[in-house]
């Protein structure tokens, strides 16, 4: 049945599916994992770094991109589609600032990206964007925000979420471990993001990229050393927790 | 003859048939010498040949007649091949006993002396310390018209019944038919299908109807069923068809089966070998990030 209704984007199947949109969601699962955490005073984006060829320049392959000084996004899915969406979003951020003399709110730019994606699910001859994005930042009111968009053009606010490969596993981890204590302060929120990623990232700290935004501060990308430090601290804490547990049972 | 509504006269098919019609059909069916030659050339090109690369000689008898075995493990597809390479082949010294050379639209093998598990090829090994264990790594596609040739050249016309065959292969999860919602499926997952003579409990749940097995794994299993050989197929449904660590690791439950248990020596080392294989053979695709 699917084969009759999955060729054209503008055709619904008898049971109400838009197969091209659903297939675009499968393309998102081929991208490496991204996790986003919304803390009280911090927002964290962690990604699994894609391994590059020996002769390839690693610096160009970036999953976390700033859209404006106070908003950034990470994506999973088709690289080229992400480049187009990010470029359009950046232009919109500046255009909004020039027109309204105010920076965009995180919700505004998320809605812009989602609307753009939805247009491509309803146009003849085009295909949907094969990316999902996690958009984080702080609004003027000082409240932290985390939104997720997907190829269908829907967007939702989240406290913590994951997209890409093994997103289900990471989301289940977050559901168990996202507590008020876990995001009590900035370093706890960062550790939670790292722990969530380490559930699915095979080779540990060297394959993780991390970025944070604090209130009234620009995007900060962690260096490899800083990430290694955080991973080691997280590892130590895990061991301490294990020892405590074994003492209790003994 | 018949006339249509629009006045055109058309030739109506006649079930009784006339002599004229039969002659015309025969002429159409009769093969020209060129057609015959082309057909023969194609048949020669598509022949499945088994040879020993070390001696560069063709195997005169079927492989299992020359190397009789009690355990025959076949990996079909790059993920299954990577699983055997990492978890089974590091357990001892394996000697190559033959390889299959074949040509079809999907698999154009050429002579090569160096093989890596991701190259399209079909190689047979036996364990030096226990030659009754034979292993096959098949990462090339064997077309429908070549499957019977492959089976005959491996098993022979009268195969031994006292051997156990284990087949490992992968299939895309979109081929899996189920009444459950696809979002509730935790891919990759294993399913098993066995012949009547296979008595052991399988390492995972059996493949439910109406799902079917395709290609070479199906041909091998059917062959074993017909010849009353004990055989089991472990089919991994995955959403990643290229070489993938998670898909390869999904085969791990098979290591507890009787035929493979004795062949597994060092699992941590196997995991390291697998990781190296992944990084060495990773397709450097930049389409997805």
**Helix proportion range of chain B:** 25-40%
**CA-to-CA gap between the ends of chain B?**
66 Å
Largest pleated sheet of chain A: 5 strands, antiparallel
- Assembly type of the chains comes to heterodimer
Would you report the number of β strands of chain B? 11
Any low-confidence stretches of chain A, pLDDT <50, length ≥5? none
The class by helix and strand makeup of chain B works out as alpha/beta
What is the average per-residue confidence, as pLDDT of chain A, rounded to a whole number?
89
CATH superfamily of chain B: PAC-like subunit
Number of domains in the coordinates of chain B?
A: 1
What topology emerges from the helices and strands here?
The complex is a heterodimer of chains A (250) and B (289).
Chain A: H1 2-5, H2 19-28, E1 34-38, E2 42-48, E3 64-68, E4 71-77, H3 79-100, H4 106-119, E5 131-138, E6 144-149, E7 155-157, E8 160-163, H5 167-177, H6 186-198, E9 208-214, E10 220-221, H7 224-249
Antiparallel strand pairs in A: 1-2, 1-8, 2-9, 3-4, 4-5, 5-6, 6-7, 9-10
Chain B: E1 2-3, E2 9-10, H1 19-29, H2 33-45, E3 49-52, E4 57-58, H3 63-66, E5 71-76, H4 78-87, E6 94-101, E7 122-127, E8 130-138, H5 144-155, E9 164-172, E10 189-194, H6 215-226, E11 230-238, H7 245-249, H8 258-261, H9 267-281
Parallel strand pairs in B: 5-8, 5-9, 9-11
Antiparallel strand pairs in B: 1-2, 3-4, 3-6, 6-7, 7-8, 10-11
Helix pairs in contact in B: 4-9, 5-6
Region (Disordered) (chain B): 1-40
GO molecular function (chain B): molecular adaptor activity; proteasome binding
Biased composition (Basic and acidic residues) (chain B): 27-40
């Amino acid at each position: 049945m699917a084969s009759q209704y999955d060729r054209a984007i503008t055709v619904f199947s008898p049971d109400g599916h838009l197969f091209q949109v659903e297939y675009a969601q499968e393309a998102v699962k081929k991208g490496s994992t991204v996790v986003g955490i919304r803390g009280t005073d911090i927002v964290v984006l962690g990604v699994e770094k894609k391994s590059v060829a020996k002769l390839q320049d690693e610096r160009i392959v970036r999953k976390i991109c700033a859209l404006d000084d106070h908003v950034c996004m990470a994506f999973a899915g088709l690289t080229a589609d992400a480049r187009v969406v990010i470029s359009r979003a950046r232009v919109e951020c500046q255009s909004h600032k020039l027109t309204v003399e105010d920076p965009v709110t995180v919700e505004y730019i998320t809605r812009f990206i989602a609307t753009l994606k939805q247009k491509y699910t309803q146009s003849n001859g085009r295909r949907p964007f094969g990316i999902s994005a996690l958009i984080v930042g702080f609004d003027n009111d000082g409240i932290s925000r985390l939104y997720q968009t997907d190829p269908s053009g829907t967007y939702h606010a989240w406290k913590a979420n994951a997209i890409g490969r093994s997103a289900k596993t990471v989301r289940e981890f977050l559901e168990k471990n996202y507590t008020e204590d876990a995001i009590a302060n900035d370093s706890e929120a960062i550790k939670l993001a790292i722990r969530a990623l380490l559930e699915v990232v095979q080779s540990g700290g060297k394959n993780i990229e991390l970025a944070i935004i604090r209130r009234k501060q620009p995007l900060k990308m962690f260096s490899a050393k800083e990430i290694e430090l955080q991973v080691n601290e997280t590892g130590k804490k895990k061991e301490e927790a294990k020892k405590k547990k074994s003492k209790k049972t003994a | 003859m018949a006339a249509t509504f629009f006045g055109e006269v058309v030739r109506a098919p006649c079930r009784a048939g006339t002599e004229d019609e039969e002659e015309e059909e025969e002429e159409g069916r009769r093969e020209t010498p060129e057609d015959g030659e082309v057909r023969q050339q194609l048949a020669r090109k598509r022949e499945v040949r088994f040879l020993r690369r070390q001696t560069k000689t063709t195997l005169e008898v079927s492989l299992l007649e020359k190397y009789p075995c009690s355990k025959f493990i076949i990996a079909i597809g790059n993920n299954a091949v990577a699983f055997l390479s990492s978890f089974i082949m590091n357990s001892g010294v394996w000697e190559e006993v033959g390889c299959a050379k074949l040509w079809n639209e999907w698999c154009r093998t050429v002579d090569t002396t160096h093989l890596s598990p991701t190259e399209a090829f079909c190689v047979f090994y036996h364990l030096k310390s226990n030659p009754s264990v034979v292993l096959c790594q098949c990462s090339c596609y064997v077309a429908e018209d070549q499957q019977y040739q492959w089976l005959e050249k491996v098993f022979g016309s009268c195969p031994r019944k006292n051997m156990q065959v284990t087949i490992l292969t992968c299939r895309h999860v979109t081929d899996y038919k189920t009444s459950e919602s696809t979002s509730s499926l935790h891919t990759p997952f294993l399913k098993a299908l066995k012949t009547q003579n296979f008595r052991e409990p399988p390492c995972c749940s059996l493949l439910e109807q109406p799902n079917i097995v395709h290609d070479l794994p199906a041909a091998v299993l059917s062959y074993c069923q017909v010849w009353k050989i004990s055989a089991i197929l472990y089919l991994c449904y995955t959403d990643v068809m290229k070489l993938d660590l998670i898909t390869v690791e999904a085969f791990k439950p098979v290591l507890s089966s009787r035929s493979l248990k004795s062949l597994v020596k060092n699992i941590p080392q196997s995991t390291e070998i697998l990781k190296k294989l992944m990084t060495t053979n990773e397709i450097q695709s930049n389409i997805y990030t």
